[in-house]
Amino acid sequence: MIKLDPANVTRQATEYLNEMMNVIKRNYQVERITPSPAMNPFTGRRVAELFESGGTLDETLLDTLLTGTFSDMTSRYMDLQDYIQTCRLVYYSSFKIHYELDKLRLPKTQRERERFRERYATRYASSWFDQIKAAHPNYMQNDEYFDAFIDAVEANLNTLNEGIGRIVNYSMLPDELRHSIMNRMGVEVCPYCNRQYITHYHDGIKFKTTADLDHFYPKSVFMLLSLSLFNFVPSCHICNSRCKLAKGVEILYPYDRGYMDDALFKYVLTPGGSIDSIVGGNTDFDIEMEISGTGASHRMMQNGVDMFKLEKLYRSHKECVREILYKKQAYSKLHQDDLQDLLELMGLEQLTQHEMNLFQYGYTLDPENFSKRPLSKLAYDVIRQILN
Ligand SMILES: [Zn+2]
């Protein structure tokens, strides 16, 4: 998982609003006067009221919904907070409790199972479903009761989303605008796997891209966020398909953070490995991922490794690692100094460390550039492992 620069999203806000604001406003106006308005079953109020303050359309709220961050939405608007919490409660609820307790290194006792379900419901608490929760007082006791509680919330959420879809719906995003957004996000490599290039081009008439526009929070559950710029993550087709398949798995949000020193690729000698393997003579080593730390971010990182099958897929990149090990051995500090001397003799500028890294390894080894070149996080980790 590679961190993406949120500034690339913010930069597009004005143009995006110009394109989308009027579409939403029109939908809202139609919904406002319809004789059979959609209702929010959690609150008993009209769905259109989600977009209002003081009885009229709140354009600032709409602006935040379309171009603000999730924390902007939840900190400024109570309804948006309730909505997102409710969606999260439903979306993440398909966990396997024994697996989750394993990840937390907790015993699989009845008490721990109950505590886990209680903590889960507290974490995504919202006054919207207090009544439903009260009607399921034993929801924490077993999977059956827990599922019945979630199903009741989900039934309401589905009705609500149907109503929201009349006003905010991904199908309202014009194809050309979608390509244009991805083109301007400056993401050149899939942030989830850091393996596949994302290619943008102009075919003489309009922008095209080879990438998928992933919804970090899937539009099928988080309908209200289906047109939110900060919910769009350009990704490769394979990763986007995996995201869609994996219902309810919490992973890092790439606009917040990516894998850093707490999620490392490592090469580990296999039993047949030798000194030759360390200096790039052969590929008698394995590539593993080491996730350190504890708590929520540790769990989300491990989930990402599992969801995108990173450890398994990266085993096919041994040749890349062998080449790095070889280059590290072949180009010593002496060679670097010779190169700098040569440049000086020729009256040319000295190379910066990033340029030297690019020259030596083919990577700048700057975390800021991880989203520019495939396998750059792998290269970064392996070289640091050699230096340590
Ligand atoms: Zn990918």
From TrEMBL:
<protein>
    <recommendedName>
        <fullName>HNH nuclease domain-containing protein</fullName>
    </recommendedName>
</protein>
